[in-house]
Amino acid sequence: MSNGAPVIDLREIVKTYVNGPIELEVLHGVTLRVERGEYVAIMGPSGSGKSTLMNVIGCLDRATRGQYRLDGVDVSGLDDNALAEIRLHKLGFVFQGFNLLGRADALSNVALPLFYAGVGGRERRTRAMAVLAQVGLEDRAHHKPSQLSGGQQQRVAIARALVNDPAVLLADEPTGNLDSATSEELLQLFANLHAGGHTILMVTHDEQVAGHARRIVRLRDGNVLSDTPAAARA
Amino acid sequence: MMYAGEAWRVLMANTVRSLLTVTGLIIGVGAVIAIQVLGHSMAGAVAGALGGMSDNTFVIFPNPTQHNVQAASIHLRDLSHVASDVPGIAAAFPLAFTTELVHVGHRSGRYGIYADSPISINSTPLLYGRNFTDSDVTSASHAAVISNAAYIRLFPGGGDPTGQSIYAGDQRYVIVGVLQAPTSGLLPPLFVHDVSIPWTTYISQYVHGTTIFAARFMVADPSRIPALELAVENELRALHGNAPGQEYQSFDKAQITQGINGVFNAMTMVVALIGAVSLVVAGIGIMNIMLVSVAERTREIGVRKAIGARGAQILAQFFIEALILCGTGCAIGLAIGLGIGQFIDRVYILKLTGYVAPIPWLSSLAVAAGFAIVVTLAFGTYPAYRASRLDPIEALHYE
């Protein structure tokens, strides 16, 4: 699977929403490639189409036109079940609002994708615990989300995103609900994951946060405005 | 099973709501099972009573409301003709009893003295001794078979009383057999023979005149009873010169059983109706709360789908939740139904019939499990399907 092909390869992606007689084209032919191991921030004002682009990249939505290859697989024409399979094995989602299951402890939250992948109970716990350790929360494995701080909850969410060893980690405003000190810690974690070889795609409107990425893609009105390396950080 | 554990946590997080949701199911299942328990006891009591009645006999008597009762009256002499002329009839004798003061030593009581044959109308097993033999009948011996109740009253010291004498009026009889206690108190008095004597003896001692109220016929093959009843009625008409009118009525175990089965079938229909109504009412409540649950957890469903859950897996989650909800309700209903059924059994049915059926575990479990499965399938499927069809993007942004 890991030939030299880009992990994300979007070509002329057009997304049109149809609502009765009204057609609204949100993406006007976006072409974007992300190579393995890159750390990319996608920026843009609201209405720029970055959420729509994220949904397409995240296989939650299908492009109206254009071709999308994810980790070498053309996902443009896949059905719902096939897309679920792709999300399960090739993508890891981190949301602004953490979106952990409140009733389940950290370990169960992290193990959930493994359950959907059909991994047995014992292996689920072992693997989930290993990933929790990776984000520094092995001693919080049996805490409920309500017993964890925002930063810790987001770490659990990151562990959940990583547990199936995805090709890309998709983060949508991951620090949006966190104070600046916690945000810094979390961004450090992303940096470490990047250093460890993970491919990260992050949507943010915060220049400070985007500055942690190695490459910034700016969108405006459904087009790529600019695609530049981020300033190197100390 | 992770679905089940998760579903249980969800339901227990809303204990009161979950309990209220399944109240209808609890009442429905409880009512059906309680009625089932009572029905079992009643059916058992009746079966016990009928079990005490011989398969090999039937009774014929003139229809008392007919125009010319006189012409139809059965004469003593008719019986020997029927016994010899109708193939399949082993014996024919009067259905008759008389009441006498019976005593043994100082103990006494008023008991019915019944005419009977080697095959008794009462098939209750023997505690001591033997039934009549053919020679008891042919020789019109003074042998007696006594009931358990009479035995206990007349022989308080217990022990085998066969060979001892009892006195009925001015006649002396020798006890040859003692019956066991009947299993059911529902046995009609006509079939509880306190003192039986051979029918030939009965005729010579107690029958005066020539017409009798009703006749009993013994047969070797119970399956031929309906045909033999007709044959005997025709023979009686012929013996009376085929006078116009002459209507007879017959009476046998199969007829009684049929009548009682009709009552039980009607009862079963009522129970089924209660079940069906409560099933629908309970199901609608469950469907309602499952739809609420799906709506409340739209965001959770979105997250699950985003991290890779397939529609079928979401469907399974909510379906199993509905199944556990229904299963729990039915289990509670099962317990309550058995409890109420047992209570009424012990307090009322036992007094009424002297018999209580064992708890019908298998059919009760079948009813409870059947309710749970049917309600889940009928009313849990749609909410689960709706959850599985949610669009992940919309679900994720649901507030």
- Give the biggest sheet of chain B: 6 strands, mixed, barrel
Low-confidence runs of chain B (pLDDT<50, min 5 residues)?
A: none
- In terms of quaternary structure, what is this? heterodimer
Total of DSSP H or I helical runs spanning 4+ residues of chain B: 13
Spatial shape of chain A: globular
Strand order across the biggest sheet of chain A?
A: 6-7-8-3-9-10
Distance between the termini of chain A: 34 Å
Radius of gyration based on Cα positions of chain A:
18 Å
Distance between the termini of chain B: 30 Å
Tally of separate helices of chain A: 7
The helix/strand series of chain A, from N terminus to C terminus, equals: EEEHEEHEHHHEHEHEE
Notes on the structure:
The complex is a heterodimer of chains A (234) and B (399). By secondary structure, chain A is α/β, with parallel strands linked by helices. Chain A has seven helices and ten strands. In chain A, β9 and β10 (223-229) form a beta hairpin. In chain A, α3 crosses α4 and α3 (106-116) runs parallel beside α5 (150-162). The longest helix of chain A is centred in the last third of the chain and has 16 residues, at 180-195. The relative contact order of chain A is 0.19. In chain B, 57% of the residues lie in helices and 17% in strands. Chain B is built from 13 helices and 13 strands. A six-stranded mixed β-barrel of chain B has the order 4-5-10-7-9-8. In chain B, β4 and β5 (107-116) form a beta hairpin. Chain B is elongated. The mean pLDDT of chain B is 87.
